[in-house]
Amino acid sequence: MKFSEFITEAIDKKLLISKLERELRASSRLTERDVQREDESLDVRHWGQWEVPEDEEDDGDYDWEVLTQASAKKLKDLITKFEKENKCKVNVQTSEKNWIAFSIK
């Protein structure tokens, strides 16, 4: 890959991350503290509804909640539409304390 192609790809990914952030903000109430953005990745906290998995005890302080079925479907639909419209792939991973990490492939 030529250097100019590398730079163009990095700029494209940065623009796609910005666009994805706008889409996520439009679909949920997010504060500035709920979003952490890097050039080619985006971490969002408290998007959608979360719940303690059925096989875990809910002691009020469980750090590994999962998206509800409805929120998981809403996110999947949003990402699928985004990928089709922008001809890209988005990697999505949930993590501790209701964070979702997104990166453009």
Descriptive account of the structure:
- There is one protein chain.
- By secondary structure, the protein is an alpha+beta fold.
- The protein has a single domain (about 5-105), classed as Alpha-Beta Plaits, CATH 3.30.70.
- It is about 40% helix and about 25% strand.
- A 4-stranded antiparallel beta sheet has the order 1-2-6-5. The chain has a two-stranded antiparallel sheet with strand order 3-4.
- A hairpin with a 3-residue loop joins strand 1 and strand 2 (about 40-45).
Short description:
The protein has 105 residues and is α+β, with helices and mostly antiparallel strands.
Key phrases:
Alpha-Beta Plaits, single chain, 105 residues, alpha+beta, two-stranded antiparallel sheet, elongated, 6 strands, 2 helices, four-stranded antiparallel β-sheet
- Structural class, from secondary structure content? alpha+beta
Whole-angstrom Rg: 15 Å
Per the CATH scheme, the topology name is Alpha-Beta Plaits
Number of helices: 2
Q: Return the CATH architecture.
A: 2-Layer Sandwich
What is the 3D form? elongated
Uncertain stretches:
none
Helix content: 40-55%
